[in-house]
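Subject: sequence -> C-alpha cells, single chain

Hey, anyone have a minute? Need the predicted structure for the following. Not urgent.
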Amino acid sequence: METVENIRQRERASVDSFIKFVNDLPVLSPRQIFDELQRLGYRGQVLPRRVVSLMAYRHLRRIRRIYLDHESRERMMPKINTLFLGPTGCGKTHLVELLFGHILKLPTVVLDVTTYSETGYVGQDPNTILTRLLHVADNNPMLASIGIICLDEFDKLASSQNNAVFAGAGTTKDVTGMGVQRELLKMLDSSEVVVPLELTHSSYGDYAVLSTADIAFIAAGAFSGFPQLLRRRGVSRGIGFGQRTGASQVPLRDDDIAVSLSPDEVEDVSHFQAYGFLPELIARFTRIVPFAALNDETLKEILSSSVLQRLVTEFEQEGYELQVTDAVLDWVVHQSVKRQTGARGLSAILTRMVEDAAFEHFAGDKAHGCVRLVLQGDSVVATAD
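Reply:
Had a minute. Here:
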C-alpha cells in the first residue's frame, strides 16, 4: 500500500514537471508567431492570423505569469475564447493545429462537436471533450488545464428552431439543439468540471476534477446560410459581405458557400440567436473572427507550395518526375473556385488528374521516366515517357 509520503513525493514531482513544461514554453512575440505560421506554409487570412497570434501570445504570457511569477488571476485579463467563422476550406482548423500543436506545442485537441449530445443519451457526453484533452496531455490534469480545445463544426450545434437554412440542418442528435450549448456554457467559463477519465457511457468509471480557468476554447464553423440570414434581417452590405471568391459584388445566391463576411457583420449576437444559438454562449467568445474565402492568388500559392509538392514527392519515390504546367495550376484553381471548396478541394482535383498515370506506372517494370500534366482545351491530360 502506498504511503502518504510516497503520494506527496509523486505530487511534488508532478508539480515540478509541470512548472518545467511551462518554463520551457516558447517565448515568441505576436509578430514572430505570425511570421512562423507563414514560414510553415500557412497562406492568406492576414487578419485572422494577426488576431490568433496575439491571442496565443496572451495565452502563453498569462500562463507564465500565473505559474512562474505567481500573479493573481484577479489582476489579469481573463482567458480568451475565440469563434472562427468562414467558408469550408479557408484554413480555420489548420491554423489551430499548426499554431498550437506544432509551434507552441501546447496540449491541443480538435474535435467534431456534432458527435456530442446532452447528457450523452445518443452521442457522447460533452464532459468527455475534456477527457480527450486529458488524453492528449498524457492524463496529466495540470497540463490539460492550460491546453487548447477546438470545437470544429460548431455551427452544427444550432437549434432546430433557427431561421437559417444550412447543410445538415435537422440532423443533430440533440432533440432541441440547445442541450450541448447549455453544457458548454460552464466549460467556456472558469469552472470546475467533473471529467470521466475514459471515453465510456458507464457511470462507474474513474473521474477527475479539471479547472477550465486557463483552457482556451476555439470554436470553428462554416455557418452555411449565415450571409443569407443577414440579408433577410435587413443587414446592409458592408465590405466583404456577399462577395464570393473571384467574383466581387456578385449578387448572393441561397446556395453560395464561399462567401466572405466583414468583422462588423459578425459582432451582433442577435444574428447568432436567429441562427439558433444561445446568446449567452456566443457572448462567452471574446473575439469572433471572420475568415475570408481564399482568392485565386492564395489558392495557387497553396497549390504550388503544398499540394503539388506532396504529389511530386510521391512520384519521385516511385521513380518518376512529375511536371505540371502553370496553365494546369490555373485550371485547378479555377475549378476549386467554381466548386467553392477552397483549399480543401485543391488536393482532390489535382489528385484526380494524375490517377490514370499513377495506376499505369506505379510499381511497374519501368520504374523511371517523366509524367506531364498539360492543358488541352478545357481538360487536363497526363502524358508519360
